[in-house]
Amino acid sequence: LLTGRPLTAKELAYFAGVTAATASSHLSRLLGGHLLAMEKQGRCHYYRLRSAEVARAIEALMTVATVPSDGWPPHHRVEPALREARMCYDHMAGRLGVAVCDMLLRRHHVVLVDGGGEVTPAGERFLEGLGVDLAKARGAKRHYCRSCIDWTERRHHISGAVGAALAEAFLARRLVARVPDSRALSVTPLGKKTLVAMGVAEYRELTPSAASTA
């Protein structure tokens, strides 16, 4: 459900590798605990995470849950595609999310303090130039800008309404694409060029001079 998309009980049972009865029991408890919401459409019941705050709590728990019994290295069994780029409910995470966050901090486009954050005037111009709808983000009934500790990278990525708007812009411009039946994202060729132009260090290509020197 961290894809941000609602799923049926049958679909969730399939992805979790459990029986329909087990899935139904778990879903009932999660609904009772106000962690999930359910919407009925015709004969189908669709389940989703109740809020971005629930998704944030799950991501935080995963920093502990995925540490192996010997303690190190953490997340060594994580699927490479998920570690590279993924949706964390409605914002970008993984190496991509962390790299974009690092760039925004380095260029003083955002300021992050104690889990909270703010977009600077220069950052507003930069993000709006990317097609990020900051007006919509300001009107959202949630934290405007904040940070999450990425559970695979152990560094911050941007979350909150700004993080969601940034992910929407990346998807709309086809800089990234969703991987079917996964919360992994793939960075498109256009996305890689755009990230290089944005100054995202992890996506810089070798210049001809650097290549010849090598």
What report would you give on this structure?
- There is one protein chain.
- By secondary structure, the protein is an alpha+beta fold.
- It contains ten helices and eleven strands.
- The strands form five sheets. The chain has a three-stranded antiparallel beta sheet. A two-stranded antiparallel ribbon has the order 4-5. The chain has a two-stranded antiparallel sheet with strand order 6-7.
- A hairpin with a 2-residue loop joins strand 2 and strand 3 (44-49).
- Helix 1 (9-16) crosses helix 2 (20-32).
- 28% of the residues are buried.
- The model is unreliable at 206-214 (pLDDT under 50).
Q: How are the secondary structure elements laid out?
A:
Blueprint: E1 7-8, H1 9-16, H2 20-32, E2 36-41, E3 44-49, H3 52-65, H4 80-84, E4 86-88, E5 91-93, H5 94-106, E6 110-113, E7 116-119, H6 121-129, H7 134-139, E8 146-149, E9 156-159, H8 160-172, E10 176-178, E11 185-187, H9 189-198, H10 208-213
Antiparallel strand pairs: 1-3, 2-3, 4-5, 6-7, 8-9, 10-11
